[in-house]
Amino acid sequence: MSRRPTAPRRPAAIALGGLAVAALLLTGGPAGAAPADPAPPAPMNRAFAQAAEEFQVPRDLLVAVGYGETHLDGHDGKPSHANGYGVMHLVDNPDHRTLERAAELTGEPEADLRRDTAANILGGAAVLRAYADASGLDAAERRDVDAWYPVVARYSGADDARTARLYADTVYDFLADGFSALTPSGERVTVKPRDVDPELGRYAKVRSLDDPAEAAASSEAGTLSTDYPPALWVPAYSGNYTVGRSSAITHVVVHVTQGSYAGSISWFQNPDSNVSAHYVIRSSDGQVTQTVRDRDTAWHAKSGNPYSIGIEHEGYVDNPSWFTDAMYRSSAALTRHLCDRYGIPKDRTHIVGHVEVPGNDHTDPGPNWNWTYYMQLVRGGDATPPVQLNFTSYDTLRSGSTGAQVKAAQHLLNQHGFNAGTVDGVFGAGTESAVKAFQANRGLTADGVVGARTWTALLSAGTKPVLKQGSSGADVERLQRALTAALGRTVGIDGLFGTNTDTAVRDYQRTRGLTVDGIVGSGTWGALQAGR
Ligand SMILES: [Zn+2]
Asked: Which segment of the chain is annotated as a signal peptide (predicted)?
């Protein structure tokens, strides 16, 4: 996809990130998978390394900015709410034109900056470097991640310094904690934890919204919400909502931002956006910021505005990595509070998605939002965190493996009657014997290793409803997961059987010697469930 020439050497990130290499090497399954690729492609790691070198931006900082913006998902060139594009969220709106700036600095056409991930990352690096030059960073300072804080804050595009700090603080939290992101094409990009001590520059005088203790201790009025005490208070632009209400509050509307947390708060402060919501919730830790008072009418759901409270959740509808347990719990606590305060029934008639409000054309919160879990939390009952089953690729798992994919395997084994014990994400002896029992049951080599074939069988297990283009729902998601494992490539998991799924089904049928008709009946299900 990348038009950019590829560097002959390995990027620094791969050299020091043994984890990244291991993750890539482990993706090849046993029999049935594509032949082992001696040099696994790592286009995004390469793009970050090249852009970092070309514009002398610290690689980890560049990745952390991209991760904060998009979780490294370029969304095929589709814009965010604020009209930002690509992994680096290059923006083209009346107030901020980093896309145009990036085009000037790199000579890349805007169309390429929007769609081509390598060009987009280069463009983001160019803008960061231009801001670094403008703030007077010299060559030595450019090598120091801590010196870039004011540059990162400016990259937020926020006119309000507190919001800019919120953005930069989040990036430096990512740098401190480290992270490992899986891109939509199944590539892993890792940033190792590091000690950070950012030089705040002019932002030292701006109170941190990100530190509740500092915010609470501030002598400035209005740092915290008066409607909902756990929330921060960053008011939207007064022209982006209506003072007062024409109707009683009877509903809560659940949204997904299609943009970052700080970016959304900033967008509501922007006089050109003409949108707002009452609350915004951060994906990583569930932090809540209120931007419009409950008693005022935020502009988030057209006909639904007068009678509802709008809650925005940081993320993108098509990428499940944003929907964290912390965000669900925090949002449910807020909704529970709102229901109690305004006498709103805790049911799905009154707590609705944006997509369900009449006269709206948005699809949020989308198929990755777990309503069952959310409503359990809202009602305050016992709720078990959802096990994430949707991944852009399925790694080979074996004794000693840990993490979210191990949890997924354990959950599926238990679900299909093979006792893997507690779903704890640790592949121990109990999990291994459950895998072997499952493999033997399905006629697979009982080696206790979950490779492509075992994943395919595990993910597809269950009923065999006939599915074809136009089908939708949980069974389509199950099919999409199984095809992702079987084909060893990302098949978008959205529960909608469209042309991409049709192509994947036909590819599967062709390579497995089945009738190639794009219809998933008992033959195709049978092959998937046998791990073919
Ligand atoms: Zn919405």
From this structure: 1-33
Task: Calculate how far, in angstroms, residue 316's C-alpha sits from the geometric centre of ligand 1.
Answer: 11
- How many A from CA of 236 to the centre of ligand 1? 16
Class of domain 212-379: alpha beta
pLDDT, one tens digit per residue, over 104-151 is: 999 999 999 999 999 999 999 999 999 999 999 999 999 999 999 999
CA angle 221, 222, 225 (to 5 degrees): 145
CA distance 348 to 365: 14
Domain boundary assignment for the chain: 12-205, 212-379, 404-529
CATH 3.30.565.10 fits 404-529, yes or no: no
CA 521 – ligand 1 centroid, Å: 36
| Ligand 1 centroid – CA 114 distance (Å) | 23
**492 Cα–ligand 1 center, Å:** 21
Task: Name the helix (H) or strand (E) containing 47.
Answer: helix 43-55
Contact predicate 436/494, CB 8 Å: no
Residues with Cβ within 5 Å of ion ligand 1? 255, 354, 362, 364
Distance 372 CA to ligand 1 centre (A): 19
Q: Which of 27-41, 232-246, 402-416 has the lowest mean pLDDT?
A: 27-41
Q: What is the pLDDT of residues 159-213, one digit of tens each?
A: 888 889 989 999 999 999 998 888 888 788 999 999 999 999 888 888 776 665 5
